[in-house]
Specification:
Protein name: Hybrid sensor histidine kinase/response regulator
Largest sheet: 4 strands, antiparallel
Number of domains: 1
Pfam families: Reg_prop
Order of helices and strands: EEEEEEEEEEEEE
Organism: Flavobacterium circumlabens
CATH class: Mainly Beta
InterPro entries: Quinoprotein_ADH-like_sf, Reg_prop, WD40/YVTN_repeat-like_dom_sf
CATH architecture: 7 Propeller
Strand content: over 45%
CATH topology: Methylamine Dehydrogenase, Chain H
Structural class: mainly beta
CATH superfamily: YVTN repeat-like/Quinoprotein amine dehydrogenase
Shape: globular
Radius of gyration: 14 Å
């Protein structure tokens, strides 16, 4: 598998994004866990994971079909998508990069431009 992204979280787990899913290696237990997209709620939005960024108690994954946010406490994913009818959404569902600045701003790079997160209220992200 091609490795598209790799990130170590604060607990020491290694997260690996590929074209065929997201993998998490736990060096303490020497085990891998694989996360794949399926049509049920709370899974990653696509198996093609292009970037990974830990932000607080969450891991943000840029995929070929939107932004997926994994809550490390609940172990659930929420996904954020582009909408042609809502200008406050992402510019594109192809997420290539994610950055949290030292001042706390969150930037998302897509195939159609750069987006800055403006607010997060009731689970809805605005860009």
């Amino acid at each position: 598998n091609d490795i598209l992204a790799i990130e170590e979280d604060t607990s020491g787990k290694i997260w690996v994004g590929t074209y065929n899913g997201l993998n998490c290696y736990d060096p303490v237990s020497n085990t891998f866990k694989r996360y794949l997209h399926n049509k049920t709620n709370h899974t990653i939005s696509s198996n093609a994971v292009w970037c990974i960024r830990e932000i607080g108690e969450e891991l943000w994954f840029g995929t070929s079909k939107g932004l997926s946010i994994f809550n490390k406490k609940t172990k659930l994913f929420t996904s954020v998508f582009h909408s042609d009818t809502d200008a406050s959404t992402l510019a594109s569902n192809n997420i290539l990069s994610i950055l949290k600045t030292k001042k706390g701003a969150i930037w998302v790079g897509t195939t159609k431009g750069l987006c800055k997160m403006i607010s997060r209220k009731n689970g809805k992200l605005s860009f």
